[in-house]
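Please check these two lines:
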Amino acid sequence: MSEPDTASSSRHNDQSAHSSTARAKYPRAAKSWTDTESSFAPSGEGSETSQQLHSTLKFSTGPTLTVHELEILHKTVCNTIVPSWLTRVPHKVGMPMCGTLKAAEWLSLYTVYMVLSLVAYHNDAEPHSDASKIHLGITLATQIVNICFSRSLTPDDVNTLPYLLSQYRVVGQTMIKKHTQRGFFLNFLRNIPPKYAKEIGANIILRAAATNWKPYSPSSEIAAAIKPILHEMDCDTALQFQMTSSWKFGGKCFSTYAEHHGDSYVEFIHQGTKGYGVIHYIIRSHEHAQPMFVLHVFRDLDSQDEHKNPYRLLPHLNATVKYNHNLILKAFLTKDIIGHCAALHNPAQTFCINKPTVSLVGLQSMSMADMSSSDNRRS
């Protein structure tokens, strides 16, 4: 996405240039996701493009998107790297040719694509402007979903959720209640004590599929990366190894970058620190069934550039920005992998950061919602 590169310097010019253009209807979640219909007049009478870029969605009153904002969203949908299981959003969402969105598409639109595009673009919007209302609407809805699908609630989550629900009350009554009850159960199932999980039959729902493993001799670089993990597992570094290109667990496929780009971007937590990286090798020893994931890990922003991160004050969006150069090669165990993430690569000068970066959104809540919808389809 190129628009955020100069967002701080050109936003007001862009908005002024489109101030005379009718806004495309903004897709809020204040009504049921299925309550959609064609509703507005073309954006501009003299422009073919403007006539085509008006929304087909009808919702309750609220902020709307300009043609320019809609174009930013379209570019983000086209350029974002996502895992294979994530429900795709039509590239021309909001245009007549797109049609109406399904519930799963709405969830992807809010929690991934709008976070990577419009939240970043309107990070410094003027208070009380339409841009600030758009920013607030997206962040409220997405934070509610992400908190409810977190692996464990922190005291901060407990204090934050009632406030978010009171600010966006209708979202709490429709989007969450109607479409994610099944996901709440599955999330609970993952985190209860093992003895209760066995009684309920959690292994049937969350079991891992068989994987094709082949003999593998690690290079010196890979051997150095997995050495700390082998020590943690009390293993001899001279063991024989196997490798695979993909590994399935909980209905999701984790792949090497060479196998599938989207399935290789993951979020992890190690020694209390959350990070993001790209899987390049999945290996295991003959003596242990547990796989090791060898990742190229994205580096954290320095303190100066972190202040330019548009997500720094919005932790419940599960979004961040990392440096995309001089990646670190590290190995992690299954217990360290949280799940997939969506990634949008940014050139240097994006967000006024001099180095290439990558915008990342953790997809844990989307994963739980996908499991919920899949289970509903089977039943």
